[in-house]
Write a structure and sequence with these properties.
Blueprint lengths: L11 H15 L2 H7 L1 H18 L4 H18 L7 H8 L1 H18 L7 H25 L3 H27 L5 H20 L1 H7 L2 H15 L1 H9 L11 E2 L15 E2 L8 H17 L3 H6 L1 H7 L2 H20 L1 H26 L2 H15 L21 H7 L9 H9 L4 H21 L2 H16 L5 H4 L1 H21 L10
Antiparallel strand pairs: 1-2
Length: 500
């Protein structure tokens, strides 16, 4: 793994097998689901097992691929689906495969089939303790709302799964992930530009009209469409209108004539997930030497119109530059202070303009103060029964609300109370561990893992997706696991080689 995240030419021997396995692992899941749901679950689970047992070095790469491209295959084959429930179920196969790969990898680790250092053992113990705490709150919440509790368990556990899968794989095998991540980044950029310039063509080749029809049915029946129209004041007339949003989804830019832009949803079929994917791609491509390609992707980031993703790119770029100019320690101190100032300022401005994400966070904060122990996963949050009946005008006037919505950190505080500090603290600790590697080596990828994770944690105050969407925190923790695992496997080598 010496060259796994160092600039190197794309090698067909590294790239093609990983891409082939990745496509095969998820491409036909919608057809199998339509034929027999039970058979689909068994087959996808066996595929996850086979990857870890037969081609373990490909596991993190395959996880990244299916996170980004599963919904593209779901969209193309959505004509085989008959109900919204079936569509939602098949979208969960990316989690199923990743969870199975994690579980098999963990089993091999517990059975000591793969030897690791005491440092790996220590990190794994803290990660498993974090999962145990989250599971405890899941059991508490499941007594009140089993479905919502299960969804939030998945949302919180998924980034930990990706981190541990990558950590154990990188600590065990020499893997080459740079060619694969560059290829994925190029595919994301190509998809983004095709959608941006040829929207009707994109919707046709991806069977998007059928895919979004299911989403419209679900949104109408659940009440989320009505709630969104009440929040934004936008009433869509056709499918294309559903892709129109104010720039950065904020009223602050309406005076500049940016009240309506056509957002890019990408192969994720989600602008926020795609935005974080493009942000990661820009930073990764720049770090490994494909800098013109990184610059070419910046317009896509703008048209995704995702504040958190844009802040991620700006923050990491500034942190890289400051480290070069002033050194690692000063940069870390300034970065942490900057993140605190950013959070306070954004909360203050959000309360002034009635931002729903900030109001949702304040609801979580007030709920934490009322019950510091927590209520259990699924209690409150966007999945709660009262979400669609929220009186947003009253919430804006009060600057808070009963419950926590639109804010991952707010939801964690409301549902887990003081226990929320366990997963948040674990994520921050892993970011700081990656920073220590960066401080001693200067390798930009390690800086991306460290500073990227930090800023996404703060973005979680203002977005649910920042922590709960796999292309955001999950992807960065996957990278963090790779750089830490590689360092622990090769720490006897030249320190600048560790984490490449």
């Amino acid at each position: 793994m010496r060259a796994e995240i160092a600039p190197r030419p794309l090698l067909a021997g590294d790239l093609l097998p990983a891409l082939g396995i990745a496509v095969a692992s998820i491409a036909f899941a919608p057809i199998m689901q339509a034929a027999n749901a039970g058979l689909a679950i068994v087959v996808e689970s066996l595929i996850g097992c086979a990857i870890v047992l037969a081609a373990p070095a490909y596991a993190p790469s395959i996880a990244v691929f299916i996170i980004f491209f599963q919904n593209l295959f779901v969209s193309i084959l959505s004509s085989y689906m008959t109900t919204e429930q079936e569509m939602d179920f098949v979208k969960g196969y990316n989690f199923l495969i990743c969870a199975v790969m994690w579980l098999v990898t963990l089993a091999l680790y517990v059975l000591r089939e793969r030897k690791h250092s005491t440092d790996v053992d220590r990190i794994m113990k803290w990660g498993l303790l974090t999962l145990a705490v989250v599971t405890g709150y899941f059991l508490l919440g499941a007594t009140q709302d089993p479905h919502a509790a299960l969804v939030y368990l998945r949302n919180i556990a998924f980034p930990i799964f990706l981190f541990q899968l990558s950590l154990l794989t990188a600590a065990s095998f020499e893997i080459r992930v740079t060619p694969f991540l560059v290829a994925v980044s190029v595919l994301l950029i190509v998809c983004g530009y095709v959608e941006l310039m040829f929207r009707d063509f994109w919707l046709t080749i991806t069977n998007g009209y059928t895919f979004w029809h299911f989403d419209e049915l679900k949104a109408t029946r659940s009440g989320s469409w009505e709630a969104e129209m009440r929040q934004t004041g936008n009433v869509p007339v056709d499918l294309i209108d559903r892709f129109r949003f104010s720039f950065l989804n904020s009223p602050l830019f309406e005076d500049l004539g940016l009240s309506s832009i056509l957002r890019i949803f990408g192969p994720n079929m989600s602008p926020i997930s795609f935005g974080y994917g493009i942000a990661f791609s820009i930073l990764f491509l720049f770090a490994v030497g494909f800098r013109w390609l990184a610059l070419a992707a910046i317009p896509l980031l703008i048209f995704c119109s995702v504040k958190g993703a844009l802040i991620l790119v700006i923050f990491v770029a500034l942190a890289w530059t400051a480290t070069w100019l002033f050194g690692a320690t000063i940069t870390l101190a300034v970065a942490l202070v900057g993140l605190v100032v950013y959070a306070i300022a954004a909360i203050h401005i959000g309360l002034q303009i009635g931002d729903f994400h900030v109001i949702g966070f304040m609801g979580g904060w007030d709920g934490f103060r009322q019950n510091p122990i927590g209520r259990g996963l699924g209690v409150g949050g966007n999945l709660s029964e009262g979400y669609f009946s929220i009186d947003w005008n009253a919430a804006q006037a009060a600057g808070t609300m009963d419950g926590a919505v639109e804010s991952a950190v707010g939801v964690l505080l409301y549902q887990m109370g003081i226990g929320a500090l366990v997963p948040l603290g674990f994520f921050l600790a892993m970011a700081l561990k990656a920073w220590r590697l960066y401080a001693s080596s200067g390798i930009l990828i390690q800086g991306l893992a460290a500073f990227g994770t930090m800023v996404v944690l703060v973005n979680g105050i203002f977005q649910e997706e920042a922590l709960f969407a796999p292309p955001a925190l999950g992807l960065l923790l996957c990278l963090t696991g790779l750089v830490i695992g590689h360092h622990l496997r090769t720490q006897g080598d030249d320190p600048k080689a560790a984490g490449r």
